[in-house]
Amino acid sequence: MTAEPSSVPSDAPTAVPPTVLTPELLQGIRDRAADYDARNAFFFDDLDELRAAGYLRPRSLTSAARDQRLLAAHAPATALGMTMHLVWMGVARDLAAAGDDSLRWVLDDCAAGELFAFAISEAGNDRVMTDSVTRAERVEGADGRTGWAVTGTKIFTSLSPAWTRLGIIARHHPAGAEPATPDPAPQIIHGFLTRTAPVTTPDRFEPHPAPGVTITPDWNTLGMRATQSHTTTLERAFIADEHVSRILPVGPTPDPLLLAISANFLTLMAAVYAGLADRALELVVESAHRRTSLKNGGAPQSADPDIRWRVADAALALDALAPQLEAVCRDRDHGVDRGSRWHRDLAGLKQRAVETARHVVDQAMRIAGGGAYRSSAELSRLQRDVLAGIYHPSDPEAVHATVAADLLGPLP
Questions:
Q1: 36 and 159 both lie in a single domain
Q2: Is 289 found in the same domain as 264?
Q3: Which residue, 63, 139, 160, 336, shows the most beta carbons closer than 10 Å to its own?
Q4: What's CA 217's distance to the chain center, in Å?
Q5: Tens of pLDDT along 36-56?
């Protein structure tokens, strides 16, 4: 891929340019969504068209969130997968806007069409970004470059068939420290792997995309199937020093990198579930106009008071989400300092978006009738997809703990 010059997006923070998501592009993506889900297949065609349209390029959080909400209304799994790339783009943009050029190269790669993904989640690690069970060891690479050999197993690695840059965290124990014993200065290494094997195509799966990296095609889930978030095993996979963004202490830290990751991840995740809910509401309005009621003399169900109440109830819940989402995007793009309140507001936004989307889809399923229960029905797929929201960080327990700490102070 040929790099193009990059910069912090000119549309941040004052202007929101027109989206590259044309009606024709979106319709094609919607038309393919059911097939990807049924075949449990990655969205290669969607990715090709999105890359060609410029969807991978840097822009403001406001633009990215609006794009993601629109994309999710047409294909939630495609939007969820693309979120991972857009998060790294947003992190690099936020740091650059604050005068930190440590991830400027990420903006260059995004402009050139490289695809970024996350390899953060690990079984048994409920501290997410502040700790890791993956280990990093200081080494010299085969080409003489210094860096880190990373060993561990990552789960829920979205975009597994197609990423070209993979964000990794791993724990490093300084020389002489024993991994099984407490150490005063363990560190978390934040860096990126580069895919060296050709990107997978629909008819060929590449299990070894880079030296020391093995992808196990084990993604067979209830919903969000097209993300193909396979397990990724690292065995002394090499991260060069120039692709290490931070070396931080284990545990919570005020470093801007972690806030930027949380802000972009939680906000864009909220946008995906808002878009999913948009589509569920659209489908149920169509259903209410189309279906008739024998007990009401053949009148459309849109004239039934109970149906009208349910539709309005779903719409009211969804209407309340938009101002919160837009306000967070606006403040992030304008560099507003909410201080420690950011953690509460971001976690709360993601929680509200997921729970609102679940409520809207539930109301839609009740209104649409038994036809929506067929596996071929789009609402049925949305019902499966929306359940994935409860598994993304931050989970409800962590969200409530964050809000309680903001209001009541930390636990002793």
A1: no
A2: yes
A3: 160
A4: 20
A5: 999 999 999 999 999 999 999
